[in-house]
C-alpha cells in the first residue's frame, strides 16, 4: 500500500459565512490568501463517497483542463487540486 499524500499547501474546513458550521466533508486549500481549490465528499448520487475536487487559483487568462474531477480518497483529491494549481502557476509564469 502506498503512503498517504502529504499536502504542500494549507487545508482547512470550508466555512462559507459566520452561520456555516464547518465539517470534515468539505475542505478548502490555501496558498497564503489565494484559494487553490476545494474538495467535497459526495453524500448522494452516482459518485456517493467519492471526493469532488475543484482547482481554483489566481485570476489569469491561461486556464487549463481538467479543473475538477473525482477521487476515491480525500488526500488524492487534495493532490489533484495542488497539481492543478502548480500547473496554473507555471503556465502563467507566476512565482510563489
Describe the protein.
This protein has 96 residues and is an alpha+beta fold. It has one domain (10-91). The protein has 1 helix and 5 strands, in the order βββββα. The chain has one helix spanning 74-91; strands spanning 10-13, 26-31, 34-41, 51-55, 68-71. It has a 5-stranded antiparallel beta sheet with strand order 1-2-3-4-5, with helices on one face. Strand 2 and strand 3 (34-41) form a beta hairpin. The longest helix is centred in the C-terminal third of the chain and has 18 residues, at 74-91. It is globular.
What's the quick description here?
This protein has 96 residues and is α+β, with helices and mostly antiparallel strands. Helix content is 19%, strand content 28%.
Question: Main traits of this protein?
Answer:
about 100 residues, five-stranded antiparallel β-sheet, alpha+beta, globular, about 20% helix, 1 helix
Amino acid at each position: 500500500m502506498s503512503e498517504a499524500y502529504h499536502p504542500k499547501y494549507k487545508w482547512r474546513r470550508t466555512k462559507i459565512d459566520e452561520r456555516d458550521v464547518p465539517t470534515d466533508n468539505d475542505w478548502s486549500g490555501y496558498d497564503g490568501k489565494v484559494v487553490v481549490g476545494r474538495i467535497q465528499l459526495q453524500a448522494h448520487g452516482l459518485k456517493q463517497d467519492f471526493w469532488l475536487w475543484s482547482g481554483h487559483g489566481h485570476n489569469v487568462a491561461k486556464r487549463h483542463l481538467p479543473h475538477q474531477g473525482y477521487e476515491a480518497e480525500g488526500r488524492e483529491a487534495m493532490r489533484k487540486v495542488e497539481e492543478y494549481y502548480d500547473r496554473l502557476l507555471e503556465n502563467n509564469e507566476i512565482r510563489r
